């Protein structure tokens, strides 16, 4: 359940907003003092602020400015002032929306829902963490397509990277040259499968301490290759 903080010194308006929001399934807290409201906004976890412009002790502009230095929670600013300069200032300080009194409580609820949905989409669209494979000093960053061995980055061609990653993702599974050729080159094994042997050799030169006794990619004579774990 989303938590909303209303900072509003007109009790009748605050209670009306609270009633409509609670009927829509929100948890609502009220504060009528500017400084106290800012303290609660910063000290507690709220999903959205409804902020009146004219408040005792500290106005909505100052609350918005200080809050935005710390948090990105959506703010809907509410005021009896209809002048564009106030709206521009409020939005410029980081408010997400600006409503002028009197307004429809139903419209306020609709705007609250819209801003919460938008904020959730923004949070959810953050870049995911890179997918990384790490095995005994070998690190493969699948997302960035980079490879390190014992902390030293190695340069790989596209097919070398694809082949190494495929084997590392399927440890201890023995693949024939034909299977690897089909998987990595996306072709039937009617081509020159010797290219698999060449690529394995190049990969070993980059990741193995001793290519004669490989610790990662093992040759299974008469069958193919496997990645040892």
Question: Can you describe what's shown?
Answer:
The protein has 229 residues and is an alpha/beta fold. It is built from 8 helices and 12 strands. It has helices at 11-23, 34-43, 60-68, 84-92, 105-124, 158-169, 177-185, 194-207, and strands spanning 3-7, 27-31, 48-52, 75-79, 97-100, 132-135, 138-141, 146-149, 152-154, 175-176, 217-220, 224-227. The strands form 3 sheets. A 5-stranded parallel β-sheet has the order 2-1-3-4-5, sandwiched between helices. A 4-stranded antiparallel β-sheet has the order 6-7-8-9, with helices on one face. A hairpin with a 3-residue loop joins strand 11 and strand 12. It is rod-shaped, with a radius of gyration of 30 Å.
Fill in the keyword field for this structure.
alpha/beta, 5-stranded parallel sheet, 4-stranded antiparallel sheet, 8 helices, 42% helix, 21% strand
